[in-house]
């Protein structure tokens, strides 16, 4: 198999929800050896932004990546220095490579994230040496919500943030969070009885573990709390996920200092390790909270191929995208969209209720790494002035 048609039935990435224009073509090459794949990449892959996918001998998509220069990135997989690393292991299992150009690095970043969520290629989430697996920190699971980890965004949850990296570190964090907020950490098979629930018989409810006695759980399994009392703790936990509550860090700091003062050095050491995990979580939650508060605007992104785009960023999430208007008629045609964007930004923001809530981390990281890009942002009611000013200087 040599160069494959972009319309080949086995290839393609599907619909791009962040592309306001016609679908971009997918190109693919295939071969039985790395040498032939390398040669075909050199012959046909361009030095432009885009996403790429690696397919194994069965035609399964095993890895998705992005780059601001597709040709340079794909050729790096064939480097001798890369043989024992992640790239070398991936290319050993690859028999075909497909790519889709994107007008900008930001567009490629969004597309990569969407594709990983859609296909969950195995080399993106497991089996890659030196790679920490991403997990989401979730709050939910009725009737007694708890903190838990999930490799994917679950269907039902109260609040969620992520992805975070390092499953072991995050497991320590979840254990500490459930204890600090006195939420249960038992399985869904546990029976829950709240204090206000009526019973025909006098029942002595026994807790399923020692945490009620240790005062690290409210005991919803043993009728030791009411629903409202438990809900109050869930609300406090939710505020932590919003980045507005540092209570767990303070509690662990006090525990560590108390244990150290009492020469309980083993206990102090465990508290220190857990505190490190929570500080990592809190730093990221604070970054995301800042993005939610500060990032609500239109972001104008130029495309190398003339496919310029306007992204609506609402509370840190990509909410919508439109092709940058060309000419006075183009601007008049897009005015209804701009008016709807203005209404969106003026509405009360509910966390995670946008069409693409998973883009929050991407947007926050992008502007943290590229603060100068904030100069390309503007409010919807500035669109006319911004557009005409740019058109006059083009």
TrEMBL record:
SMART domains: GIYc. Residues 47-125 form the GIY-YIG domain. Gene3D superfamilies: GIY-YIG endonuclease (3.40.1440.10). PANTHER family: UVRABC SYSTEM PROTEIN C, UVRC/OXIDOREDUCTASE. This is UvrABC system protein C. The gene is uvrC_1.
